Amino acid sequence: MSQFDFDELDLPEVTRRQLLAITAGAAAAASAPVAVAGGHRRGQKRRLRGPKAPFDSVRDWMEALEANGLLMRVPKIDQDQYHATALFFQMTDMFSKYASPAILFEEMKVDGRWMKSPVFGNHQAHWFTECIAFGIEPDWNSYHGSYRKAKAYLGEMLDKNGGTYPEIPPVEVPRDQAPIKEVVLKGDEINLLDFPFIQTNPADGGRYVNTGSHFMVDKELGANFGTYRCQIKGPRKLGVNPEPNQTNWKMLMAAKERGEEYANLSIVLGQDPIIWMISGTRVAPRFGNNKVDELAIAGGIRGKAVDVVRSEDSDLMIPAHAEMVIEGRVPLQAPMEPEGPFGEMFGYLGAKKEENFWMEVTTITHRKNPWFMNAFTGMQKGMLTAPQEILYDNFLRRRIPYLITYHNPQYAMGLVFMSIDKTKPFQGIEAGKSVVSGFGIAKIVIIVDKDVDVHDHLEVMAAVGARWQPAKAHYIVDEGGGLFTDPSQPSYGKTSKIVIDATRQFPEEGGKEDFPESNRALLEKGAPEAMAQVRELYMKNLTSWGVKS
User: Fold this and answer.
1) How far, in Å, are 249, 255, 256, 330, 383 from residue 261 at the CA level?
2) Is residue 19 within a helix (H) or strand (E), and if so which, with residue range?
3) pTM (predicted TM-score)
4) Burial tier of 529 (Cβ tally within 10 Å: 0-12, 13-18, 19+)
5) pLDDT tens profile 72-101
6) For the purposes of burial, counting CB atoms within 10 Å of the CB of 397, is it exposed (0-12), middle (13-18) or buried (19 or more)?
7) Which of 44, 78, 442, 497 falls between 20 and 30 A from 346, CA-CA?
8) What is the arithmetic mean of pLDDT over 381-402?
9) Where are the domains of the chain?
């Protein structure tokens, strides 16, 4: 290949054929408009392969990714040497966070033991997964086109349901029809250290269960599930880490203040792709303390009810086709315990906490030979983002009618890109103010014109370089609400913010009377047939360049 020589890679457990099958021609960065995966080359006809949505289990989902060339299998890897983490960095360095495949380790060395239960990660990172998860044929020739296609599908779903996602209530199934009940462990049979939960980074506080959906019910706040990291503190003891003001934190604090002794908790692992996405995003319309049935929303987005089964030690209903559930009790009146540090979502080490919730594990049930997901936090795009971004589009458009679209790139936490159809002076700054005031993640908001593709960071940066005048086209907030994981914050949850108006500036904003058109726009206007003609005449040159036979 032109940029990378696979023959020179020192990856003994991944065959050259496997890696080429995943990434042939995919040396492009996340911003590249051409997508090549699973041996596909632009111009070839291709159809979605393998199992189709809705996916009842993560196994069906991974089978679909493999059928479409988006899964890399690694037979053995030594995590005691942090090889899985290093390989993950190497993979994303080469192919970017948005163009890397899911990765599955069939056997992994953890704490001196080789464990054969598969460990996987990165399963919702690739641009194409945004379509495949919903049964949509991706645009195999365009990463960004594929993403826009997923957003359009979800936008239509929202439009048909009055601006929210539809709901289909979950269906309880008999215990013998729930794969998650195939094996039941109680008391001394339980040892969390027997499973391949790993320490991802050498500086982490230890091994973590970091992809669990925490199912909890509060008599005032209702039911919730969310994803929170859990440090393993012993064979039957876990740290529980919802951050202040997250829903499960509110539930635990409310129960503690009511004087309750403990809270029941079921931590579900190996979720289907939609439940996993909902668990880590703000897709469910939870405003204030309103009650939401997130499993019903998962069913509505899937178009099929989620099968659920009752937990062993409580009435908590959990997905029947998941891989494992760790059940237990969170002591509410006992002293809290230290937790961390942990490599966080911004890609930096989070601080050790002196006081954190923890749980006593009472029961584990799981499938035979369960699969385990690890979050390579701060290294990956963690989950599908189209469902949340289209919700943000709809929400913001009520405040910003000239909005084109919103994008929060997962490779650069704290950045937000927005495109607008600018018709009046100062609309860029106005749009940016609406975002920095209400979105904690929005620390640097870049506003661009409608001709700029916000999914292509190179286009966005080019607009900043060519259209932005720093002296006037900015707005700064000295202190606003921020994400708790931002390592630059001088005080917890507080950050300064900036709006960069990289739209063409009108004279009233200090801009030129006549802003010149771009070279590409002039080509498309002056020679409108040229691009199509070149695609017809020279596509072979483009698709064969740099690819080894």
Assistant:
1) 16, 8, 7, 9, 35
2) helix 16-23
3) 0.88
4) exposed
5) 999 999 999 999 999 999 999 999 999 999
6) middle
7) 78
8) 94
9) 6-160, 171-368, 400-516, 519-549
